[in-house]
């Protein structure tokens, strides 16, 4: 099991040979200008919500890869309006669990807002928990700190992908609290540095997590790490 970081909240997991891309925002990210998105060919694309900085490259990547796009009901409707065939769209909702060839995926709560790039209502934002054999991975999406996270503390999470940039989501201090809520020691930071309001001091962030006996990974854009 591995993950490649493409900046902002865009990551691509490889689960038992299946490629699962989340929140594709690469072309319009100045920090990811050296990434060739034509080389990204996932089997699945998961969207946490419909904001532009999470869906901007969905259509282009989907059309080249013929990936299946997964999202909450209202965001999934926007996906279909972009020309993605219905058979390539899976919609579901909170409490739902998908059984897919690479494992199971449960949709969980995120504290944020959600609209699609055309300005329409996108349903609620969400996060996902991936169950891959005996491994558990939580992708929080865009979220503020919320007590709902405590519902995940008994899942024995191996890794959690948490926003740390602040301003629009949790900052690094709330992310440390979130790690406690979800009872997970291994964290990958997302949603930071892309725009001035969410720029962080990386050394400070790593030290802060270490003080709480947590591991914080901040991979470079394009870097792959083994989970």
UniProtKB/TrEMBL annotation:
Residues 7-191 form the Metallo-beta-lactamase domain. It comes from the Bacteria. Coiled coil: none annotated. Signal peptide: none annotated. It holds the Pfam family Lactamase_B_2. One of its GO terms (molecular function) is hydrolase activity. Keywords: Hydrolase. Gene3D superfamilies: Ribonuclease Z/Hydroxyacylglutathione hydrolase-like. InterPro entries: Metallo-B-lactamas, RibonucZ/Hydroxyglut_hydro, UPF0173_UPF0282_UlaG_hydrolase. SMART domains: Lactamase_B (SM00849). NCBIfam families: PRK00685.1. This is Metal-dependent hydrolase.
